[in-house]
Design brief:
Elements lengths: L1 E5 L4 H12 L3 E10 L15 H8 L3 E6 L6 H16 L3 E4 L5 H13 L3 E4 L6 H10 L3 E7 L15 H14 L10 E7 L7 E11 L2 E11 L1
Parallel strand pairs: 1-2, 1-4, 2-3, 4-5
Antiparallel strand pairs: 6-7, 6-9, 8-9
């Protein structure tokens, strides 16, 4: 099946794309929504414009669609982008990286039904720790680009998801109920390497911004290697 990937640059959309390709589907394009609202109900915002480098690394075209990020109204911009993907790349379905968000999944599914294409949620209800271990096992190199939940602090910004990360996040899950995969927005991620990439991404420079109880790792310069 010819598929478009709703792509944020983070681990969930990248891993869902990886699973879709493993199942034999053809990845025709990425669809990235650039929201002006950092508190968007639907879309990831940290490092979102850097997805162009990931698209180049995968050698897959990307459709960029801007939105003001107004609740519910932003769905019209998503539909516009999917319509373009259908017209330009003849996609027959959409892949999402949704794990548990009924809000996001139900709305994407409704758009797909309207446009008569399939909606694939390949990570839906996946065991959280199994998922994190699969990322490592399958050579996904993922860094943390934002945190917004206690007790995650500035030291977590820029960290890679590895065995130590899993041990630490398990402790926080047990004690503070932090979602291990960040599904509640506790943290956001950016993929710098994975089996879909023909080239890896090297971050040349970045900086941390911390405000009260949340922060972001801004990727300033990067290159493909």
């Amino acid at each position: 099946m010819k598929l478009g990937i709703l792509f944020s640059g983070g681990k969930d959309s990248a891993y869902a794309a990886y699973l879709a390709k493993k199942q034999g589907h053809e990845l025709k394009c990425l669809i990235t929504i650039i929201s002006k609202n950092p508190e968007s109900y639907m879309f990831h915002t940290p490092s979102i414009k850097k997805t162009k480098y990931q698209a180049k690394a995968m050698d897959i075209p990307v459709i960029f669609q801007k939105t003001k990020g107004i609740k519910e109204e932003e769905l019209q911009d998503l539909e516009k982008a999917i319509k373009l993907a259908i017209k330009k790349y003849k996609i027959q379905g959409i892949v999402t990286g949704a794990l548990q968000s009924v809000y996001q999944t139900s709305r994407i599914k409704k758009i797909c039904e309207k446009l008569n294409i399939i909606c694939l949620n390949l990570l839906w209800e996946k065991n959280r720790f199994q998922y994190l271990n699969e990322l490592i096992k399958n050579n996904f190199k993922v860094i943390i680009t934002s945190v917004s939940a206690y007790p995650l602090d500035e030291s977590w910004l820029g960290r890679e998801i590895n065995e130590e990360f899993i041990r630490n996040i398990k402790e926080f899950n047990d004690k503070y109920k932090i979602h291990p995969a960040g599904e509640g927005g506790e943290f956001e991620t950016f993929v710098i390497g994975c089996p879909l990439f023909k080239k890896r991404i090297k971050i040349l420079s970045g900086r941390k911004i911390w405000k009260k109880d949340s922060g972001e790792y801004i990727i300033e310069k990067l290159k493909l290697i």
